[in-house]
Amino acid sequence: MDLVLLFFIFVLAAFLGLELISKVPSQLHTPLMSGSNAISGITVVGALLAIRSEAEGTIGMILGVAALVFATVNVVGGYAVTDRMLQMFKKKGK
Predict the structure, then answer these.
(1) Residue 21's closest CA among 9, 8, 30?
(2) Quick one: which of 28, 33, 34, 62 could link to 82 by a disulfide (CB 3.0–4.6 Å)?
(3) Taking each helix axis from N to C terminus, what angle separates 29-52 and 57-88, rounded to the nearest 10 degrees?
(4) CB 71 within 8 A of CB 44
(5) With left for phi above 0 and alpha for psi between -120 and 50, is residue 56 left, alpha or beta?
(6) How would you class 72 by CB atoms within 10 Å of its CB: exposed for 0-12, middle for 13-18, buried for 19 or more?
(7) Shortest CA distance to 74 belongs to which of 30, 36, 20?
(8) In angstroms, rounded to a whole number, what is the distance separating the alpha carbons of residues 37 and 55?
(9) Alpha-carbon distance 30 to 19, whole Å?
(10) How far apart are CA 16 and CA 39, in angstroms?
(11) pLDDT tens digits, one per residue of 30-75
């Protein structure tokens, strides 16, 4: 894919993400974040495919490993935050 097109998609995604976060009330940031972390599973699958692909060469493998690490951190962190948020709603005591 053309580099200019990829850069355009990146800028558009960043702009839309900024607009979405600024319009959502702060009470909904955590559920929105946990939902977006679940979407990072798609990134994990794509990274695994990039690592497996030998056509991209060493650069593709390095980028795939980096994407896999960052997406995994995002998914695990999202589940940890969601678990902590759900613990806040449980009744304390008995």
Answers:
(1) 30
(2) 34
(3) 150
(4) yes
(5) alpha
(6) middle
(7) 36
(8) 29
(9) 16
(10) 16
(11) 777 777 777 788 888 888 887 887 666 787 788 888 888 988 888 8
